[in-house]
Amino acid sequence: MKKALVRVTVIAIAAIGMLALSSCSKKPNANDNGSGSDGSQTYGMNSGNTDSDGFKINSMKAPSNQTYYFTLNSSDLRSQDMKALMNQASYLASHASSHIRLEGNTDNRGSREYNIGLGWRRDQTVARILEQQGVHANQIQMVSYGKENPAVPGNNEHAWALNRRVDFLYK
Predict the structure, then answer these.
(1) Which of 2, 80, 133, 165 is deepest in the core (most CB within 10 A)?
(2) Rounded to an integer, what is the distance from CA 58 to the centroid of its chain?
(3) Model pTM score
(4) Beta bridge partners of residue 60, listed in sequence order
């Protein structure tokens, strides 16, 4: 009995450690496009790791913030970001007490009014996909910063590409 209790404790500590390590997120910088191999910062479900007794351990990664990028003057989500957003939607739909904030951003070209509207449309695109996957609207808060909150300063294609984004932030 004591041996089993020690084993369960060790497994619990290991699972907590893995959760803590997996919750770290990466912010884009001027030398990085801010994306994983699928075009977005990664998040998702583990494959269902089990211990030797068949009990699931760490079956879902802790949520992490992400950034989704857009093309010039577009509010269409890139196809390579869809898988990551579906994983986020799955987590949120099964955790109704979790809340997110979508922050729409644009590059620095165009008027302030146009860019606020474009940032808002980008937020709405992401929110609509989440809601279609079962996420409740009250779990989602949206704000558009337009061109007022650049991730990377600069007036070149690299900076503009990193600034055309929606930041997906857990609250």
Answers:
(1) 165
(2) 19
(3) 0.67
(4) 45
